[in-house]
Amino acid sequence: MLASRLGVSFISRPLTVMNRRAVVLAGLASLAAAVAAPPVVQSQTSDETEIPELEPLRALLKALDVAFSNQDLAGVMATLSDNAAIMGSGPGEIWSGTDEIKAAYQHFFEGFDSGQQSFDYEFSLGKIGADSGWMMTSGNVSGTKDGKEFTFPVNISLVATKDGGKWLIAAMHFSTLTGDTEEREED
Fold this sequence. Notes:
Nuclear Transport Factor 2, Chain: A; globular; 2 domains; alpha+beta; six-stranded mixed β-sheet; 6 helices
């Protein structure tokens, strides 16, 4: 049905069985084609000026990071839309609505000393329109807890919308490595 509407016709052929050599050659041909094909997505960059239109979203994430680092719950909430949702790394780590998000951030604040956390993003990519946009970034979080220093990698993706001329996070996902990385290296 759809094929005829699109002007495409199909020829019925008997099923052929491929031998091992044909499978290997087909796989190598596919790999060669994939390597030779030009990329269809924007490349990652450490020079944030290459995607200047993302600056409003970078500024929004920076405002969230500053409020978060200072354990300023009102400041965190000021970066989020009224019906925002946030997803973490593990199963069940999803928070939506003001009360759940406030409770989650109050719990997150327990993981570091106030004012002693910083974010260093290595790159960002995304797209922004007139009243919505998305951005992905990756980097490291450094800080202290009870005077002990820590650093861990983090990936963040967010979707933002414009409300009354102000960019707000509508959805955000963050992920980080879980468990003891030293144990993984020993395996």
